[in-house]
Design brief:
This protein is α+β, with helices and mostly antiparallel strands. Among the domains are: 164 residues, Bira Bifunctional Protein, Domain 2 (BirA Bifunctional Protein, domain 2, 2-Layer Sandwich), CATH 3.30.930.10; 110 residues, Rossmann fold (3-Layer(aba) Sandwich). It contains 17 helices and 18 strands. The strands form four sheets. Strands 1-5-6-13-12-11-7-10 form an eight-stranded mixed sheet. A five-stranded mixed sheet has the order 15-14-16-17-18. Strands 2-4-3 form a three-stranded antiparallel sheet, with no helix packed on it. Helix 4 packs antiparallel against helix 9, helix 5 runs antiparallel to helix 6 and helix 8 runs antiparallel to helix 9. About 1% of the residues have low confidence. It is an enzyme of class 6 (ligase).
């Protein structure tokens, strides 16, 4: 007799590259982290707002994406009206659209925060995903450097509230006006040089990774990496490269020295001098509020996006960790942002000052996990009511309903297996306890409650099956009418 051929699966169970699944433990840890961040933002007076994951492609800005290639960098598609739509690339451009759309109804300055997934249609790699979460806070409607300073101070407070010790992080601040002044001085001003300016910004942004020599190559003809891949450079001449590198090397022994060095770099350049003045104002505020040691002026911070128009900042973690290969590494930047006074203007035709920053949730969560500050343990599951007799399902459901009415997570086993498999199921659910009522318990008007946590601890000292059956660790009978009370007492003892 021939065997019945196996049916081929309709699809492979697999994830696209650059995307990840998250289990209950990771979700619980991240949610706790998000709640802490949210409380800090609200302490500073920011309020929640939510925008959809999909926007009109042109709302994302001239820099994202290239209108001739609407899928360059973002995930885009056309709807049935042949309009181009895109998954949001960040949370800032959607906020700019929201503020412009509701401008007259919003208080100004408008202080908001939002968390959500963003999407990048880019090549994924180690630690580089195509879907990841950000948590942003922005102030729209204030041109004062005090608004930028406050964001930086809030970033510092957030790190400490999450358990990152002072000295294990630093908030670095710079001003794009200073760099813009330098770029104007070397002939890269004007709209026609926007592409080359962006290349310069991205080159400087690699300073920590490649060092001055690597950045020098990226500012010039280009750089070939270890794999042989070549990155085209900005094409600057030697004199222009020297001036840009002098800007990045202007950091002094303290804030005052750095500001003095920057003044020398941009002397005679009005836009650059304006940026240095804003940095000096911010430094005064940091010192007055007691943040001088936690927030530093650092010319190497430029941020890679073209839309920044003033102060820019990053939160960098400074403590070393050992990775899976035994190498000592640093997490580096986990948050960043800056002033973007021109973004809302795209929708309104008038400049609207704005500043804000974004926390990379996944990267920060990994850092907290390495410090033991992220509760990544599997969360406690529900109390499970076992189904011993199929004709008594209504009674088991009544038990579950009573527990839920008392605010206790509970579920009735809905499978078709016997008691041994049901106990295994409860263990996999990380249930704190199971409720058992067979015919004997029912006749006695009782239920049997098995404390799975205490039972697991007791099992570590019991090696003999006969001893186990005799001891029945952490198992006790309770009157049916006392079910809720006994379960509440058991959970309270955790």
């Amino acid at each position: 007799m021939s065997e019945t051929p196996k049916k081929k699966p309709g699809a492979l169970a697999r994830l696209p590259r650059g995307f990840v699944d998250r289990d209950a433990a990771e979700i619980a840890g991240v949610n706790a982290m998000l709640d802490t961040i949210r409380k800090v933002y609200e302490l500073y007076g920011f309020e929640a707002v939510e925008t959809p994951a999909i926007e009109f492609t042109d709302a994302l800005g001239k820099f994202l994406p290239d209108q001739d290639r609407p899928n360059e960098g973002v995930f885009s598609f056309q709807d049935d009206d042949e309009q181009w739509l895109s998954l949001r690339y960040d949370l800032t451009a959607p906020l700019a659209r929201y503020v412009a759309e509701h401008f007259d109804a919003l208080p100004k300055p408008y202080r908001s925060y939002r968390a959500g997934y963003v999407f990048r249609n880019e090549k994924p790699g180690p630690g580089r995903f195509r879907q990841f979460m950000q948590f942003d806070a922005d102030t729209v409607g204030s041109a004062s450097p005090a608004a930028d300073a406050e964001i930086c101070m809030m970033a510092a407070d957030t790190m400490e509230r999450l358990g990152i010790a002072r000295g294990d992080y630093v908030v670095k601040v710079n001003n794009r006006k200073v760099l813009d002044g330098v770029l104007e001085a070397i002939g890269l001003g004007g709209e026609e040089n926007a592409g080359r300016r962006l290349t310069v910004l991205r080159a400087i942004d690699k300073l920590d990774k490649f060092g001055p020599e690597g950045v020098k190559l990226l500012l010039g003809a280009g750089r070939k990496d270890e794999s042989g891949d070549f990155t085209k450079g900005a094409g600057l001449d030697d004199q222009a490269i020297a001036r840009v590198l002098a800007f990045t090397a202007a950091k002094g022994s303290d804030g005052a020295a750095t500001i003095a060095n920057l003044r020398a770099v941009v002397a005679g350049i009005a836009r650059g001098e304006e940026g240095v003045g804003e940095l000096a104002d911010m430094a005064t505020l940091f010192d007055a509020a007691g943040y001088g040691s936690r927030i530093v002026i650092d010319p190497s911070v430029v941020r890679g996006l073209e839309y920044y128009t003033g102060p820019v900042y990053e939160v960098e973690l400074t403590f070393p960790v050992t990775n899976e290969d035994g190498q000592v590494v640093r997490f580096g930047s986990v948050a960043g942002g800056g002033r973007y006074d021109g973004l809302v203007a795209r929708f309104r035709g008038e400049e609207v000052p704005a500043t804000g920053f974004s926390i990379g949730v996944s990267r920060l969560a990994a850092a907290l996990k390495s410090l033991g500050k992220l509760g990544a343990e599997k969360p406690v599951g529900p109390v499970v009511v076992l189904v011993m007799d199929r004709d008594q399902i209504a009674e088991y459901q009544a038990m579950v309903s009573e527990l839920r009415a008392a605010g206790i997570r509970a579920e009735m086993y809905l499978g078709s297996s016997g008691m041994k498999a049901q106990m295994k199921y409860a263990d996999r659910r990380n249930a704190p306890a199971v409720i058992i009522q067979g015919s004997n318990e029912r006749e006695a008007g009782e239920v049997m409650i098995k404390d799975l946590v205490a039972g697991a601890e007791a099992a570590k000292t019991i090696t003999d099956n006969a001893e186990w059956r005799a001891a029945r660790p952490a198992q006790f009978a309770a009157k049916r009418g006392e079910l809720v009370e006994k379960i509440r007492e058991l959970l309270a003892g955790r």
